Recover the amino acids of this structure.
């Protein structure tokens, strides 16, 4: 098993460099066009020349942070504060606006229900019976 380890490491480096080259934007490729780098990685991958050349000279590396700090230091300094929903004024305001919308919708539904109940009462009472001012014929005069 141990005798296969060098071959597996070479294969892993070869695959990593190939995928890294394919995923790198054209603007970050240095020296040669991206297609040439892919060919170099594929042709010289078995002897590690292609993948190592890509990792060393082919890809433009970005600096870690603009102020010289490491990523962990940057994240420590720019950490977002967690606010519980009870203390978040934006969340509480959204609850109030949703509550107002729900109340308005409920009032509309109640008015519609009252109207439908009134229509059913009129239909059940029959055409000859007067239930209220709506069923009273207009005065002629």
């Amino acid at each position: 098993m141990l005798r296969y380890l060098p071959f597996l490491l070479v294969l892993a480096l070869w695959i990593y460099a190939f995928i890294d080259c394919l995923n790198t934007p054209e603007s970050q490729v240095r020296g040669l066009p991206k297609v040439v780098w892919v060919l170099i990685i594929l042709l010289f991958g078995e002897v590690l020349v292609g993948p190592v050349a890509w990792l060393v000279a082919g890809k433009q590396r970005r600096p870690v942070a603009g102020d010289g700090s490491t990523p962990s230091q940057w994240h420590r300094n720019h950490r977002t504060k967690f606010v519980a929903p009870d203390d978040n004024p934006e969340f509480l305001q959204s609850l109030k606006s949703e509550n107002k919308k729900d109340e308005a919708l409920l009032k509309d539904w109640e008015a519609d229900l009252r109207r439908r109940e009134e229509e059913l009462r009129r239909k059940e009472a029959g055409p000859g019976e007067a239930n209220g001012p709506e069923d009273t014929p207009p005065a002629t005069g």
